[in-house]
Structure formats: C-alpha cells, structure tokens
Design brief:
single chain, 14 strands, 14% strand
C-alpha cells in the first residue's frame, strides 16, 4: 500500500455498545468527521471547500454559503458508501433531518418497505370510492296521499284572550304562512238579497245587500258627516239586517218582506229615489261619498260570541248611552252605558222645549180628572216627581198625578225626543225641555261624528259604543 493512500479504520462495536457509540459520535461531531474521511478516501483534489472538524454538536448542520456545493457532493458520496458497507458494518451516517430520537427506531426504516405502496393503494381506493358515493341513490320524501292531507286551521284575525301575542324583531317582516291546498273547491257565497217594503208605494223592493246598505246610510245619517262616521253607520246597518236574515226574522214587516223602510226597522231610500233626487239634483257628490263608505266596509259586520249583534243606534245622546235593560227590560252584554260628550258640542238640536196643555198631558198619560184631583188635593196641576234615574242619566221612574211611569213610557206617550227632561208649569200649560234625541241604546250618530272629527276610525267608534264586540264577514255567517 502506497504512502499516498489513506487508511480508513472502521471500528466495530459490540451490539450493546452501538447506542452509546452513536450518542458519542453525535456529541463529538461524528458527521463532520466521517465526511472528512470520505472526502480524503475519494482523493478529490478539485474540492472547493473543506468542512471544519470542530463542528458544534447541533441538531441541524448548517454550512457556509461558500461550501454548499462541497457539502452536497460529500453527502452523496457518504450515502453511497454507507449503503455499500451497511451489511458489513453497523456504522451508519445519520442525516440531521432523519436522525431518530434516542431509543426509537426510524419511522420510515427499511423494515417497512410496504408503507409507500400501501399509501398509494389507499389513495387509489379513495379516488374510486368518492364517485361511487356521489352516485349513490338518495332517499326522497314520498308524496302524501290526498286522502291523508289535513288543511291547517286558519289563524284568527283577533288574538284570543289569554294568548300571548307573537313578538317580532324590528325591521324583520313576518314570515307569510303557506296555505294548504284545499281538498275541494269551496264556492263563494253569493250576496244575499233583501226584501224591503216601501211604504210610499206599498210595494216590496228586492235588491242586493250592499245596495240596500247604501239606501239605509243615505236615509239614516247626513252625508255631510265625516267619512269614518259614515263607515261606522254602514257596518251597523249591515249588522242589523244580517241578524234578521240569519234568524229569518220578518217581524213587523208585511208578508213577503224582510224589513220596512221606516225607523221601526231601518230608514231606507230606494234606488230609484236616490237616482232621481240625488243623482240629478246636485247631490251626486254626497251620494258618491256614501257609496264609497259602503264599499270600504263591504261584507263587514259586528259579532258577539260569533253571532251578529243587535246593532241599535240613535241620533243624539244626552252625554251618555243607556243600558239595554233600562229601555227594553232585557240586559244585553254589549249594549252598556258609555259616555258620549261630543253630542252636546255638535248636535244642533241637543236640547228642545215643547209646551203641552194640562189636559193633553192627562189624556196622553191616561189619567182621569178624578184621580188627578185626588192626588193634588183638588188643585189644578198634577204633581210630578222623579223617583229614580238610569246609569245613562235619564229618568228611570217618575210619578205623575199619583201614577208611576218609566222614563221611556213618558217619552213615548208624550212624544218627547228623549227620556231625560225637565218641566216647568205655566198656568194650564207645561213646558218640557228634553236633552238628546232617541232611545239612547247603542251608537250615537252625532257622537260618532264627533269621534271621527277627532281622528278616530270607524272601528274605534264601534268598539266604543258596543262593548266587547269583534268583526266578521257577513257572507260567511249567512252562508
């Protein structure tokens, strides 16, 4: 062996000492030393850089920029040399980024050559499984047979008592409910006809309900009233006739008629008279105003416990309405006494004074001269004394010449405008002053106009004068 050759002595360690040797080499920079020995063995005179033997024991070996190519060449040669001598020697040159931790075998050692192939096989299986999963048939909802469909109940327009109203976030519109398809078509109820007995002609006129309401509003309320008051009157008139039609009530009307055109039921102006006296005499604007009020309230009525109410109304209150039992001897839950202060301010005939003779008063009340003389002790004037008043501030009971009458009786027999009145004797005559006009039960028309002038709607007007009522469609109830 020539002197120029470098001898490499490969130490052979005992298997038990392999771990200690590896740790010692790692601590003293064995990688750098091995690289120098391999470089000398290959005898490359054109090497452009060398590695220092004093490399510090770091986990990762970093070379200077000037020695990058030399390190790459050395690592390649070292790898080949180690591969060739692995079978004969336990010496291995561990790379910094593949160095196993102490006491643990390399994760990707030669003892598991099948791992790369297993990974590739898994990828291929997954690539074939994804399209198969996407093409797999999905379960779809089966259509419900028509016989098992159930229509959802309609939501009530008015929140029932005890229910908590739904709270929605501000600015978020409510989600509209999707109506269920009806199992069968429901025909729309036809507008019913009303048979009205016209007293001026002695004939019965048959016409549609809404056209009848136009004639009633024109007869019952001045067209100069506010639009909301006219709407309230239209709803009240429609409710009155709907109640009679539902009950098939023809009381007080001639045979073949439902109602008359008098205040016994509802005042009414025929279509021919409206056309002749309103349409061609400068009152077409007033007629159009009434027709609009009827159209705006079409098919709307007032109900109590699902049934049309007795929608009584009158002209002018004395400041209050009456309880029904104080006028008709029957208590009705929605005909309660309420205040009505607008009448006194607006009604032109809020008060009216009439003067009657003593004899006329006796005759109308059915009092005999003997009874009056006995009650007055032979005087000329009968004694008049109020016994009680109603909640509506009208006369409930009154004594005249020793006989007791109710306020409505005195009003009807003497032809007074109201059951609230005062009197003053003047010789053989009695001056009686009344307050308001009408029976006082239900809605006051002048009061409704006063509420409308203050900005109240027709709904608010009716809810004030009729206690605890709600609204419904006449077509549904009459069908």
């Amino acid at each position: 062996m020539k002197d120029s050759q470098v001898r490499i002595r490969i130490p052979i360690h005992h298997p038990k000492e392999h771990r200690q040797a590896s740790l010692a080499e790692e601590g003293s920079g064995s990688i750098a030393t091995s690289l120098q020995k391999i470089k000398l063995m290959q005898q490359q005179p054109d090497t452009r850089g060398t590695l220092s033997g004093g490399v510090k024991p770091n986990r990762r070996i970093t070379a200077m920029p000037s020695a990058v190519n030399s390190v790459d060449t050395a690592l390649t040669i070292a790898g080949a040399a180690v591969h060739d001598t692995r079978a004969a020697s336990p010496l291995q040159v561990p790379l910094p980024h593949l160095r196993p931790s102490a006491g643990r075998a390399p994760r990707w050692g030669n003892r598991r050559p099948w791992l790369p192939f297993a990974a590739m096989a898994g990828v291929l299986v997954l690539a074939m499984a994804v399209p198969a999963l996407m093409a797999w048939p999905r379960q779809t909802a089966q259509p419900v047979p028509p016989s098992s469909r159930t229509a959802a109940p309609a939501a009530p327009s008015v929140t029932a008592k005890g229910e908590t109203p739904v709270t929605r976030l501000p600015g978020v519109p409510p989600i509209p409910a999707v109506p269920a398809a009806p199992t069968r078509s429901v025909p729309v109820a036809a507008e019913p006809d009303v048979r009205v007995y016209v007293t001026s002609t002695g004939r019965t006129e048959t016409l549609p309900l809404e056209q009848y309401i136009v004639g009633v509003v024109a007869a019952e309320m001045p067209p100069s009233f506010e639009g909301e008051a006219l709407k309230a009157q239209a709803i009240a008139a429609r409710t009155f006739i709907a109640r009679r039609l539902l009950a098939d009530d023809t009381s007080g009307a001639p045979a073949g008629a439902d109602v008359t055109d008098t205040v016994k039921h509802q005042a009414y102006i025929s279509k021919a008279k409206l056309t002749r006296e309103w349409g061609h005499s400068g009152k077409s604007a007033e007629l159009a105003k009434i027709q609009q009020a009827v159209r705006d309230t079409k098919d709307t009525i007032m109900v109590y416990e699902g049934k049309p109410i007795t929608a009584s109304f009158f002209s002018t209150s004395n400041g209050y309405t009456e309880n029904s039992e104080d006028v008709w001897a029957k208590a009705v839950p929605y005909l309660r006494s309420v205040s009505s202060p607008w009448d006194k301010q607006l009604a032109p005939r809020y008060t009216e004074t009439v003067t009657l003779s003593r004899q006329s008063v006796f005759d109308r009340l059915g009092l005999s001269r003997t009874a009056i003389a006995a009650s007055t002790g032979g005087g000329r004037m009968p004694e008049i004394r109020i016994l009680s008043k109603t909640e509506g501030h009208r006369i409930k009971k009154i004594e005249v010449g020793g006989s007791i009458f109710t306020g409505p009786e005195i009003r009807n027999k003497l032809g007074l405008r109201s059951a609230e009145f005062t009197w003053k004797a003047e010789g053989d005559r009695i001056a009686i002053t009344t307050y308001g006009y009408g029976h006082g039960v239900g809605m006051s028309q002048w009061g409704a106009n006063g509420m409308a002038k203050e900005g109240h709607t027709a709904t608010q007007i009716l809810l004030h004068y009729y206690t605890g009522i709600s609204f419904a469609q006449a077509s549904r109830i009459l069908s």
